[in-house]
Amino acid sequence: MDGFLRRVMALLTAFVLFAVMLFYTSADAAPLHADAAAEILGVDVSKYQEEIDWKTLAQSDVKFAILRCCKVIRAYNDWEVDATFERNYAEAKAAGLAVGCYMYTDAATIEEFEEDCSYMLGFLKDKSFEFPVFLDLESASRQEHLSPEVFMPALLTGLEMIEDAGHTAGVYSSTAFFSECIDRQELQDAGYPIWEANYFNTVNGLSSPAGHDLSAEATIWQYSGCGRMPGIRTTVDCNICYTYSFFNHAATIVNSILPSGTLKNGSNFTVAGTVQSASVLRTITGAIYDVQTPDKPVQTVTVYPHAREYKLTGFFTKKLIFSTLPDGEYELHITAVDASDTLIDVAKSQFTISSDSSDGDSSVVTTEEPEHDRKPNESQKEQREQEEYLQYSGEKNTDGQLGALVSCWMLKHFSMRKICGRAAKIGLKLRLERTPLYRIVSKTFLVLEIGYLASTIRLEIAQAKADMVAA
Q1: 244 vs 39, 99, 130, CA distance in Å?
Q2: Alpha carbons 239 and 66: distance in angstroms, whole number
Q3: Beta-carbon neighbour count of residue 348 at 10 Å?
Q4: Which of 348, 271, 284 is nearest to 314 (CA)?
Q5: Selection from 196, 369, 169 nearest residue 280 by Cα
Q6: What does the pLDDT profile of the chain (471 residues) look like in tens digits?
């Protein structure tokens, strides 16, 4: 018996070892499409690397290149576009490398960041990048002495300008700068990639990244300023990227409500959800296709968020009018285009429009009429019923009187929700959506909305209890 058990254990051990070997063999051969932490080799270059043989470089282990676009040094009134930027951009793209770019700037105020970013963005028109557009910050004379409280609002202004132009924005600096004048945590919380230079007390950097790991504090680590790479005659900055997100072009939709099953002909449906991506999304498109003629959409809408997150509301949902669709089989496609101009499939949903209500799917959620579209007599009826219930609850159910008072007050002041919506739209128009103040105000609106919904549910429960007592 012991011998039999030993043989079984040996077979199981061999099977496990074989599975592990198979996994790692396939992982090594797999393309760059994973979510786990990684160590991907790349370079950053400027005119000082002279003419680069990009084809040779792309045949090495290098997978990405970050190109210097321009520099602004106010201390010397030095404004310069890098002489090799256009050529490097074209040839690195042609060689199949993932490309990003950066601008060195010694800007210290909001106005200076606005001016410098406008200068850089003028050179980035009609260009797309797989990697972020970085602001290179390392001026000892104009930036290093500033506190994060002073420097961060100016820096965030520049980053927001880059994203508003349709690029993913990031920050490059040294470990010392990230410790002194840049709030690393605020950048990480806002989702901005961090590119950190840390040579671990060496003059020109490490000869190899082995033995060090900055993945907990940086997205990209610049570990050397004197590396050697095939296709580059001079020394070059060497980097490690810790994520595949810049290679894996993806977007997801969360908290989604999509049409499915059978919708009754003439009824409306509101698509809902939030589209999210690690990269800035330039466009999001919704298209309804007739299954019988899938080559051309019967309805379509495109929005231009220029952000990494977009809630499908307002213009997007109003342009998809399900109530006008004739009977038939349909499919809703939601797609996005990111900062690298890559088309991404976000979601698909099949549904049926039918005039026969008996075919309807009770699980389908259709939209209710907005409050402002309801007939006056319906609103008056609701208000009268609420007042009657309030009077009834005060006589028959004193324990629920306070809850009923709160609920009825919230319902009577339903316009507060409209005020919140208008304020949010004003914030978007004023380009405040990424500022700390707007976040605080948005959270306040969310609390009010949750309070309204909670009070509505509480009123319905109290009404049901009252009906039971009356019965």
Answers
A1: 9, 14, 11
A2: 10
A3: 12
A4: 271
A5: 169
A6: 445 445 545 444 444 343 433 333 333 333 333 344 689 999 999 999 999 999 999 999 999 999 999 999 998 899 999 999 999 999 999 999 999 999 999 999 999 999 999 999 999 999 999 999 999 999 999 999 999 999 999 999 999 999 999 999 999 999 999 999 999 999 999 999 999 999 998 888 998 899 899 999 999 999 999 999 999 999 999 999 999 999 999 999 999 999 999 999 999 899 999 999 999 999 999 999 999 999 999 999 999 999 999 999 888 988 999 999 999 999 999 999 999 999 999 999 999 999 985 544 434 444 333 444 444 454 555 555 555 444 444 444 444 555 555 555 555 454 555 565 566 556 555 555 555 565 566 666 666 666 666 666 766 677 666 666 665
| DSSP collapsed to 3 states, the chain | CHHHHHHHHHHHHHHHHHHHHHHHHHHHHCCCCCCCCCCEEEEEECHHHCCCCHHHHHCCCCCEEEEEEEEEEHHHCEEEECCCHHHHHHHHHHCCCEEEEEEEECCCCHHHHHHHHHHHHCCCCCCCCCCCEEEECCCCCCCCCCCHHHHHHHHHHHHHHHHHCCCCEEEEEEHHHHHHCCCHHHHHHCCCCEEEECCCCCCCECCCCCCCCCCCCCCEEEEEEEECCCCCCCCEEEEEECCCCCCCCCCEEEEEECCCEEEECCCCCCCEEEEEEEEEEEEEEEEEEECCECCCCCEEEEECCCEEEEECCCHHHHCCCHHHCCCEEEEEEEEEEECCCCEEEEEEEEEEEECCHHHCCCCCCCCCCCHHHCCHHHHHHHHHHHHHHHHHHHHHCHHHHHHHHHHHHHHHCCHHHHHHHHHHHHHHHCCCCCCHHHHHHHHHHHHHHHHHHHHHHHHHHHHHHHHHHHC
8 Å CB contact between 325 and 298? yes
Residue with tokens 């342009």: 319
Q: Which tokens is 318 given?
A: 């109003």
The residue whose two tokens read 């590119």 is 195
What's this model's pTM, rounded to 2 decimal places? 0.69
